[in-house]
Structure to design on (265 residues):
């Protein structure tokens, strides 16, 4: 494996993440599997740890700027952290049982998660572009100041957190869709709430994956070196780059990636 290329690819992915907001895990984990031939279990664990630094830095920045909703972060995180740790524990049990090939199982799970996220985002984008006047039925708005709202927020967080613990995917993408659909957050609070929630979630998920012994630091460090400056540059370029055509191209690529993961599994 040529580790010198890893920061270069990570830098490019970081720019894409900064430009579009598309989750890095949807891109970095397949990159590690296809280009660098990393076993899925190692790719997922290493990606979780690598993504944590970017999310924590971003979360601290938004907390300082007060561009987030701490109540939603609190209740969503309590659910997502519990679900994530459950997902990591299930991975441990499957690996220890030896009854299934853990890498084949993770390939299937990874492909399904990327496909669901990408398909959902594509449908949403196409509806906005071609049918802007279509009034779709709205999901109920959740209020974390009520017991019902808190319970449903915990439940949603647990389900998505479980998928993050198992596959590393959706710590940002699916949570962003949930924040839009169920909480109707303003744009300036949406990103901060999403990143801060993901930062806390990934800290605990990383600790869980570290106990599995599948984190490869020779992968994590080059990803950090490349992706962090890439995200910063991408965020700057975001102001002058047309978003919809760029996102459509990248989502189409992700659809092909998810299909290739299915075939490989």
């Amino acid at each position: 494996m040529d580790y010198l290329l890893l920061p270069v690819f990570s830098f490019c992915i970081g720019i894409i993440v900064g430009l579009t907001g598309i989750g890095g895990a949807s891109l970095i984990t397949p990159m590690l599997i296809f280009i660098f031939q990393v076993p899925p279990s190692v790719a997922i664990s290493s990606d979780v740890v690598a993504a944590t630094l970017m999310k924590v830095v971003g979360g601290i920045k938004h907390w300082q700027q007060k561009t987030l909703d701490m109540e939603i972060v609190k209740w969503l995180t309590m659910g997502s952290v519990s679900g994530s740790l459950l997902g990591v524990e299930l991975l441990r049990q499957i690996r220890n049982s030896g009854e299934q090939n853990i890498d084949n199982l993770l390939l299937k799970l990874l492909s399904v998660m990327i496909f669901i996220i990408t398909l959902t985002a594509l449908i949403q984008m196409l509806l906005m572009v071609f049918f802007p006047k279509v009034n779709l039925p709205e999901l109920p708005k959740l209020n974390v100041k009520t017991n019902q709202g808190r319970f449903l927020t915990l439940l949603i967080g647990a389900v998505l957190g479980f998928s993050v613990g198992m596959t590393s995917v959706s710590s940002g993408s699916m949570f962003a869709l949930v924040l839009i659909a169920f909480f109707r957050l303003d744009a300036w609070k949406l990103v901060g709430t999403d990143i801060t929630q993901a930062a806390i979630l990934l800290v605990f998920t990383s600790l869980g994956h570290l106990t599995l012994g599948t984190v490869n630091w020779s992968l994590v460090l080059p990803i950090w070196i490349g992706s962090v400056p890439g995200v910063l540059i991408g965020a700057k370029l975001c102001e002058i780059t047309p978003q919809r055509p760029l996102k459509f191209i990248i989502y189409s690529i992700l659809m092909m990636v998810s299909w290739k993961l299915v075939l490989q599994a």
Q: What stands out?
A: The chain has a mean pLDDT of 81. The first helix runs from residue 5 to 20. The CA atoms of residues 28 and 208 lie 19 Å apart.
